[in-house]
Amino acid sequence: MSNKITIYDVARKADVSLATVSRVLNNPTRVKEKTRNRVLEVIKELGYRPNAIARGLASRRSTNIGLIVPTLSRASISEMTNGIADIADKYRYSVFLNVTHNERELQTDSWENMIASQVDGVLLASDQMGEDQMDRLLNETVPTVLLGFKDSQSRVPAVLIDYASAAYEATKKLIDSGNKDIAFLTVEEKFETNPEKEAGYIKAVEEAGLTPRVLKFADKFETSIGEFKHFFEHEKAPDAALAIRDSMAIGFMNAAIDSGLSVPDDIEIVGFQNTQYALMSRPQLSTVMVPTYDIGAVSMRLLTKLMNKEEEEVEEQEVMLPHAFAWRGSTKN
Questions:
Q1: Which residues contact 181 (CB under 8 A, 6 or more apart)?
Q2: For the chain, give me the number of helices (H) and strands (E)?
Q3: 105-159 pLDDT, tens per residue?
Q4: End-to-end CA separation in angstroms for the chain
Q5: Per-residue DSSP letters for 109-122?
Q6: Does an H or E element contain 100, and which?
Q7: Continuous segment of H or E residues that includes residue 228
Q8: Pairing of strands 286-289, 324-326
Q9: Were 275 and a residue from 64, 75, 215, 257 both cysteine, which residue would form a disulfide, CB within 3.0 to 4.6 Å?
Q10: Cis peptide before 291 (omega within 30 of 0)
Q11: If residue 39 lies in a helix (H) or strand (E), which one and from where to where?
């Protein structure tokens, strides 16, 4: 049989995942006998010969890390990746990148492909992580660390900040500045950290006896620009606004200025992340400072300990990094 037969062909023929084929080859006792026999029959039928990666090295180590991210278009993802790369280079690990474009099916495929490739560990950044996908992570033996978000039941190691507290503190600052009508700018999609930010905002507003005003716009920047313009043409502008990320805050701020409002005199605006765009905007954007580089670096360090089975040195599975604030020209300070 041709040596061009691959593990993908075996998985397709046996109607199983790549991860299952990999387990049959490397850890067969973890696969149900019926499934294992079916895969072995297909391997024999196709004449598949696993290469060194598919079989796993003798040391069971490939010095490869899988990095799964939802997009490369965000400055925050770039900063986080730099943190990962710097620490991975220190430990001489290679990082394999997979972009899922916010699609759950691709995210699942990416995960299985990483496992089938015999990576030593996986770093996972996700905007939308279903419980079924989280359960899948728990069923694998490959160490995994979540980047910038957490498992709702704290079962998977994660590195992030306290988004609810950060949003609460930012909203309190806007309230203390005398603003009464404070909007929270978010998206229709139920992304991982946004509900926590919204909860922090609502807590601060309700504590002050004010009415929450949650405004939802399109996630895509190109579409949201038109929605922002429409908003200022037809709705009452808030006194202030807190956005889920810098790009949304800047788009909203630009639309406000185009509508004739003055920032920060007529409306104060705060972003979330502290990307390079916050410094490039005019006026410069006040924002919650999320340590994205550190999230990447600390996640990589944590993953290294887990891969080396140094769990006793891991003080906590869920690492909360400190956040800060940059008060700039988009607020009255």
A1: 210, 211, 213, 236, 238, 239, 240
A2: 13, 12
A3: 555 666 667 766 678 889 999 876 666 667 666 666 688 899 999 887 778 899 9
A4: 72
A5: HHHHHHHHTT-SEE
A6: none
A7: helix 221-234
A8: antiparallel
A9: 75
A10: no
A11: helix 33-46
